[in-house]
Amino acid sequence: MAGAPVAKTPHFALHRAALDVPVEGKPLFPVADAWLGVLLPKRWARRAVTRNAIRRQIYEVARHRAAPLPQAAWVVRLRSEFSRKQFVSATSDALKRTVRLELEQLLARVPAAPATEARDVV
Fold it and tell me: Is-contact 81 44, C-beta < 8 A?
């Protein structure tokens, strides 16, 4: 999170950390894969029900993404508040749709993982 975000939308920022950086001789994560984390500060989403609804949307959008995230540690960070005047209910369909659309835009800015070539085994 020390570096600049990879992608931004009005409410979210996407950060990336390479997994091949050893920490004290050990890899950062034990499995080479895409790791997704979520950072939802109370400053921007005061109610727990709102944070949980946004968190579920983040994981669902990432899971149903057409191309899997490239191998790295990814963090989706909420960087501004969704207006409580516009979205009165924390679990309203309007809020879920807005969050999902913005997350799809955010993840669309991530380059797709390079496709592995299938080899013919004889």
Answer: yes
